[in-house]
């Protein structure tokens, strides 16, 4: 027999089981129950971790992110840029890998509507055809959320089109009593200890030195929410928040103050329907803006606009044969750039010498022009839950579901864009009045890429049907399900079986063994459909004859390219899992093994020059990868003061290709120099190792020291791994064939292999409540000033040491 524990747990100033606090007092409420029920795994199947609003308050990050919660889930790894100095000013959420999946292969839902970004989700860098996007379409502040569910294995049939994991976000609902809060958090460069790392290199090797000054920035976050009942059966909640950062960036000897802003506005109405039914209707508006420039390029300052709108309606309604769950929603996401038109890579010369004045090998100028990319999504889903069926001693829960999605993507470049590369210095050159891309008696460009102005729109329709049944018998529980998916791009009929089961070893809930065998199909690559519809860029060359510049002509040495159609299978992931959940010392211990075999993953192939003068780039299903992860997790509440969580994961991964653009998407920067060889930049992803550290461990501890004081600690370990880094050097590549007398060579950036050492980083948080409604908060991140090793061996740079966040929250 399980014996209940008596506890009243307060975390970071929040009484989880208490009543509202009176003025100048902290009221402690004793709750009878099992402390193990108050963990992220309470009442869930193996593979699911649920964090309610109490956890969100107890472990909330001052920057409004979810990192503190994600660290409590075994099998999640963060992108390495989460520790870089730029992360302090970057308002975008951290990218995560779940169970070895690529960061853009997760399904992230808000109130049932997928908010993933299909606008080239793996192409997050600012580029010619990309607008510095993110795998998420909306950047959400945790103050909007009521709960977070993370599923890393044994994912139910209602979730599809992913081969990583699932993050299910639910926005707040209004309660029976009025409630609200206002908050403010801030940090700045004066509160950061930067660690300046100088390289140690062998004589004769190039030196990458640390910058001459520390980064500077200021970051603020503020907001409010308020909920109130409307009548006896309804409620309304309104929420608004804004995060902003301002960071001076040095470029060509000048300092530019670049700003980022992310806003969240949310309204949600909830009401009871027919006594036992529920209706939720919500609208979330989350625009994002960012100023940027191309480093060390004159006249390159530009703006990005992202984010968008999401609106959902959810109805839970009992019926004669089913308990209905009906969901419908629409969303709009944009990635838009406003930038100077045309980009020039000038050689240093008398009239183009800002590069040499700043110790650079070229004088860069301009930008990639205006570009608008947007994604419109509409979705409807119905889930019907049948009454339990009894077959002797076996109880059967049954569900059916249907889903229909339609999505449209648009790519709009209003003007032709020219990218000028490979300049030829010639002090006798005659430009014939063509002074836009030629300098009289100085230099001219031998190569340019032409990107046509165009407005292209493509659509995708997806349909799904699913069903599952859960059998309960004695100490055993088995869930068997099927999910069917179809889309009108790949045109495949995909059937994914899902099977999981558990056995309560001693029929007392103390020891539960779990196992699962599941298949997950990924989604159609709508980005590729967009590429097929767009006009290919053209490469043009010119030379000089007797020192007179020639006209531009289309080159035939490499050929133009276009994207071709092909018959593709849908990528899928086969998963096997084994697990043990054991109630131990008042907590829950979980040991788990997850194995993923990913097949038919998208890769890219390129043809020889065809009869029409084009090279054809086609997707294929030659990609594959494997993941094996073993994890151990323990969660426990100790009495009425302390809460503990510990996870450790060991994983191994192998992959045949970096992403769907391996080999690299063709362009001026598609090749680099790596260890003396000319290779594609995308091929280097195979040894970069991001999201692929063998050992990852996290310890979370919170404690209430006194009625008005509480604190928390997070200690995280990341094992060492190899990566590839740019040295900042440029070397000559292959010769470029022109129609003139001069010799021209492509310019290749130099990359080298580097080792990232293991890290051990500790964060501290403390909350003081001088008044019942007022909380003052402080976070000390990297409290012991440890190295992050974001600057690899033999490189110079700046790393984050200890830094602070301060904040205040007032309950209304």
From TrEMBL:
Keywords: Cell outer membrane, Membrane, Receptor, Signal, Transmembrane, Transmembrane beta strand, Transport. It is a multi-pass membrane protein. It is found in: Cell outer membrane. The keyword S-adenosyl-L-methionine does not apply. InterPro entries: Beta-barrel_TonB_sf, TonB-dep_rcpt-like. Residues 1-22 form the signal peptide. Its main location: membrane. The keyword Transmembrane applies. Gene3D superfamilies: TonB-dependent receptor, beta-barrel domain (2.40.170.20). Belongs to the TonB-dependent receptor family. This is TonB-dependent receptor plug. It comes from Alloalcanivorax profundimaris.
